Amino acid sequence: MRLIFSALIFFIVNFFLVQNTAAKIFLVNDSGDTDLCTETCTLRGAIEVANTNNETDVITISPTIEKINLVGELLIKGNDSPDTNVDMTINGTAIIDAQKTGRIFAIAKNAHVVINNLRITNGYLSASSTLQGAGIHNQGILELFAVKIYQNNIEQNSLDKNTTIRGAGIYNGSTASLYLINSEIGPRNGLIIKGKDVEAQGAGIYNANKLTILNSTIFNNYAFTSSKISKGSANARGGGIYSTAIIRTDIEGSSIYGNKVETTLQEKTLYGKAQGAGMYLESSSKFYITNSTISGNEATSYGYTNAESFVFAHGGAIYAGAYSKTYLANVTVAKNTVKIPTIANSDAAGVSVGHTFFVVNVPGTDFKIKNSIIASEGKNCIYSIKSDGNNVISDNSCFTPISGDKINTNPLLFPLEFNGGPTKTHRLAPTSPAKDAGNKYGCFDYLDKLLFQDQRGYFRPKMRCDSGAFEL
User: Which domain of life is it from (predicted)?
Assistant: First the structure.
């Protein structure tokens, strides 16, 4: 029996030794964009060799390379079988610049990719049948650590009906998993589309499956749509994030700010909607948001107020669709806005509707908050949400208060800025009513985990924390 066990151990050890010998380590020391990888090696060359290997390959870009200008998409291949994955880690501090010639990274199904510290910029898609993911198009497993994805754009002028563009920064597809850690999506990832029956979804991130965001920032991204075609439509949704996923999305220790959705109607366009500047959660999406800040996002609809035009602006911070589940614990939602300027007036009354915080669309939606702050200059909510207590709300539009809730109360927030930690927060004034307003038995998230830290990573007391993302 002992011999059999020893033989088994010998087999296992040698199996992994053999497997490890197949792994490759690449040093990228050539900033060109060819498929060269011999004595010198380009990033494209290293990826193409690693695509043929089923082991964990490590590609390190030399610190002497500051920038790599691409002439085409970098494809990381997967395999048809989930048992033969491409597994790749890319390290470096270089800027990967597509020079507005196309997409930057495409990650196939069954590929597992880890990217550390890169700057990914100037991806650009236009007049293409796959207007998704200018920065990254992901169908595999993607982990981003300290990565910055900025100034990637998708633009389209469409005379066709039902044209949609998605995910200027990242498109996370239906087979994909995305883990965003200590990273930035923004600024200026943008979606712009003009035409008949057009839509822009998720300027920062479009998500259709698994998404986890930790200690990261999604900021200053924009989705703009316009139509001047009779009986057309134009919708802009999800400046920061647009999600269709029924798998739970987790956001913790993060800031979503300064994102915009905007739609412009001209002449007798039928309707336009600007919804969910911070986040747009489609029907049946599930979001758990903890120790995070949603601030300064803006939804704007411009349109003619005539009898044939219907202009809507909903959810400066969050738009929550039918049957979605959204749970906020120790979150600060502040200074989000909606605007509906009028291009031209007429005697006929069109329809203009705007609400600042979020929209719970139809019965069946599950939206809960606790130990949180909601503050805007206008109306916070349309349709009711559920309070689990200890919230500070600047008006009375959201819910019937329960134990510990403070409604019609100014939380006394300082402007959004860096107050320590990796992301921006709203610091509480010393006299803020949110101070010590949390649950007296401790602040827990919606997975029943006790929160020992605030968004910045600063200590929270076990008993009676502050409401919102910031602990004094």
Answer: Bacteria
How far is the first Cα of the chain from the last one, in angstroms, to the nearest whole number? 63
Structure tokens, 208: 């259709």
Query: Which of 82-86, 265-269, 344-348 is the least confident region?
Result: 344-348
9 in any annotated domain: no
pLDDT tens string 125-160: 997 667 999 999 999 999 999 999 999 999 998 766
The CA distance from 274 to 239, in Å, is: 10
408: burial class by Cβ within 10 Å (0-12, 13-18, 19+)?
A: exposed
Longest alpha-carbon distance in the chain: 94
The vertex-395 CA angle with 389 and 400, nearest 5°, equals: 40
Q: Are 260 and 290 in contact (CB under 8 A)?
A: no
Range of the domain at 178: 123-428
Any domain includes 215: yes
- How many domains, the chain? 1
Among candidate residues 154, 150, 152, the one with its CA nearest the CA of residue 119: 150
Q: Is 202 left (phi over 0), alpha (psi -120 to 50) or beta?
A: left
Q: What are 240's two structure tokens?
A: 């920061």
Q: Which of 430, 421, 433 is nearest to 468 (CA)?
A: 433
Q: Are strands 177-181 and 342-345 parallel, antiparallel or unpaired?
A: unpaired
DSSP code, position 429: P
Q: Give which of 189, 68, 70 is closest to 134, Cα–Cα.
A: 189
Tell me the pLDDT tens digit for each residue of 392-430: 999 888 888 998 999 999 999 999 999 999 999 999 999
- The string of DSSP letters for 250-290 reads EEES-EEES-EEEEEE-TT--EEEEE-SSEEE-TT-EEEEE
Segment 169-189, tens digit of pLDDT: 999 999 999 999 999 999 999
CB–CB of 293/335 below 8 Å?
no
Q: What is the pTM of this model?
A: 0.91
Specify if 15 maps to a domain. Answer: no
Quick one: pLDDT at residue 389? 96
Q: Is residue 238 part of a domain?
A: yes
Q: DSSP characters for 423-465?
A: S-EEEEPTT-TTTT-S-TT--B-TTS-B--B-TTS-B--SSS-
pLDDT in tens, 92-128: 999 999 999 999 999 999 999 999 999 999 999 997 6
Amino acid in the structure at residue 470: F
Spell out the residues 6+ positions from residue 21 whose beta carbon is closer than 8 angstroms to its own. none
Beta pairing partners, 198: 163, 234
